[in-house]
Design a protein that fits this description.
This protein is about 10% helix and about 40% strand. The chain is built from 6 helices and 39 strands. The strands form 10 sheets. Strands 2, 3, 4, 5 and 6 form a 5-stranded antiparallel β-sheet that branches. Strands 11, 12, 15, 16 and 17 form a 5-stranded antiparallel β-sheet that branches. A hairpin with a 2-residue loop joins strand 13 (about 180) and strand 14.
Length: about 550
């Protein structure tokens, strides 16, 4: 009998070692999944050396949520927790008052705290109604925030109106517009608006002055239930200008996708200027350049179409001129951030099942991909060369990374779930392409089950996204459609970006219009056949399809 070679023995030992390591890993289960930490978007400090971020999680033992703020040293990677980590205590909306003082929202109030662990915190502002999306501009000593209020009411007046409404013997509402309900919420007289308020700082005594609603001077309709509502806003670095996103009222709000952007002076007085009056589609994601001279936003141009391509518009404040850049780009960005040198925009865009960051020249529209895998977002420029971003993948929850925009190299700065996942197997996504409806190439991916053995047969779970003009991405989902949850339960898990999904050119997205019932179905059935025949290990007698909204 022939003996084993030394190379064969070494290979066998390596295989045994790998199997031994793999056997010590457990599958991702529901309790671990719901306990995972979620990292928020970084907030860069005035001196560009530090960044604040939140970490939130759910405590099963106490059945309570928790969220705390940490400070990241961008160069060293050192992380210091600044607020208490305790179930039931939720701290959100981190911001910088100055280089040594941070702010945040907790239990409805805005606090300030010295930049140190568990430093003494004091209330800056205790509004009578909930506020959100708070920003501060030190050179103007100005707070900006959003709040839902009754028509033409201050925060205090709105709180009083709500209290009176609560004392009514009934809860009846009369609607004369079809937009009576949006998803799972009824329309109410309270609508979101954007406010500014001055802050007087005298040593340890801080006082917030009377707030001003910048949307108050817009024309209102008689029906308070369908009046103006602010969706989002951006404030210039100097604090002198503010752009806000509003959905203007129409006779039939259910069919309108018109969303406008207005530009206002934070000091109030002048009526806000409409920047998107000639376009009937939805505008979103306003972003000021760091010198405050230009405002960029994303613009759909087709009225009534929610899945239209997003174009990049840039408005110059001094000349009041608007131009479109990268108009030839067959991609639809969903977030923007200016580079620190004001020469480019960082756009987050869906591309073949990934959310990637693309640098777009603000004049020529020339583009360069900065990331290629996983799902990136929350891009926050640090300096002329580096940006912070939040990145995840199918096999890794979200963490903050530092990206060099010249070399495209990145380094991971946080490891929010290292302890919770150190003994958990998370499988990666494996891409496949097949011929779907219309003869088009369609993209999908498969996540193999826990402790996969090609000699065995496994049930198949087909996870279908909603929309249908939405897309699955290879990021770490914190919702019930995380493929590793099903792979951990022993399923070969399949996701498909069928016709209508963005990220494959606008023609592919548009193709599903009036074909919602057949193109996606054809794609999904062919994907299942492809996986069952090509990937193997699938038990054809045990298959399940599941999803939400259109996918359900």
């Amino acid at each position: 009998m022939r003996g084993f070679s030394s190379a064969s023995v070494l290979l066998a030992l390596i295989c045994l070692a790998v199997l031994s390591v793999g056997s010590n890993l457990r599958p991702l289960d529901i309790k671990t999944f719901h306990s995972l930490n979620r990292v928020g978007a970084p907030v860069v400090s005035p001196n560009q050396k530090l960044a604040l971020f939140t970490t939130s999680y759910y405590s099963q033992a106490e059945n309570k949520n928790a969220a705390f703020i940490s400070c990241l040293d961008i160069d060293s990677g050192n992380i210091t927790r600044l607020t208490e980590d305790r179930p039931g205590t939720v701290v959100t909306n981190p911001l910088w008052f100055d280089q040594d003082t941070i702010g945040y929202l907790k239990r409805g109030a805005l606090y300030r705290q010295a930049l140190q662990t568990d430093g003494a915190a004091s209330v800056v502002f205790a509004p009578p109604v909930p506020i959100s999306n708070v920003n501060y501009r030190a050179n103007q000593s100005l707070l900006t925030f959003m709040a839902a209020v009754y028509p033409n009411c201050t925060l205090m007046e709105s709180a009083a109106a709500k209290q009176r409404a609560a004392q009514r013997p009934d809860s009846a509402m009369v609607y004369d517009n079809l937009w009576a309900r949006h998803w799972n919420e009824w329309m109410t007289p309270e609508k979101a608006s954007v406010f500014t308020a001055p802050v007087a700082r005298a040593d340890e005594q801080w006082t917030v002055g009377r707030e001003t609603s910048l949307a108050a001077m817009l024309p209102h309709t008689a029906d308070p239930l369908t009046r103006w509502a602010v969706d989002d806003y951006a404030v210039s670095p100097s604090g002198s200008s503010l752009a806000f996103v509003v959905r203007p009222p129409t006779d039939n709000m259910t069919w309108s996708t018109n969303v406008d952007i207005y530009l206002a002076a934070t000091g109030g007085g002048a009526r806000p200027r409409l920047l998107t009056g000639r376009v009937g589609g939805a505008a979103s994601a306003p972003a000021f350049s760091w010198d405050g001279q230009r405002l960029a936003w994303l613009q759909m141009e087709t009225a009534g179409y929610e899945a239209d391509i997003n174009r990049i518009y840039i408005y110059t404040l001094a000349t009041r001129e608007t131009v479109a850049v990268a108009y030839d780009w067959d991609a639809s960005p969903h977030a923007l951030a200016w580079s620190r040198d004001n020469r480019a925009l960082y756009a987050v865009v869906s591309s073949r099942g990934r959310n990637i960051v693309v640098e777009v020249d603000a004049v020529t529209g020339k583009r360069r991909e900065l990331t290629s895998d996983g799902s990136a977002g929350a891009v926050r420029p640090v300096d002329a060369r580096r940006v912070l971003l939040v990145h995840s993948s199918t096999e890794a929850p979200a963490d903050i990374r530092l990206l060099d925009t010249r070399s495209c190299a990145s380094s991971q700065l946080t490891r929010a779930n290292q302890d919770k996942l150190q003994d958990v197997q998370l499988s990666r996504a494996e891409d496949f392409w097949f011929t779907g409806a219309r003869g088009d190439r369609v993209h999908g991916w498969v996540v193999r089950p826990y402790a996969y053995d090609r000699r065995k047969r496994y049930p198949l779970a087909l996870l279908m996204h909603g929309g249908p003009q939405q897309a699955s991405t290879q990021g770490f989902s914190t919702a019930q459609w995380n493929p590793n949850m099903y792979a951990g339960a022993g399923f070969v898990t399949v996701q498909v970006n069928f016709h209508g999904s963005p990220g494959y050119g606008q023609n592919f997205t548009d193709s599903v219009r009036r074909r919602w019932g057949d193109y996606p179905y054809v794609d999904l059935m062919r994907a299942v056949d492809y996986v069952a025949s090509r990937v193997g290990s699938v038990d054809r007698a045990r298959m399940v399809a599941l999803g939400g909204s259109f996918g359900g």
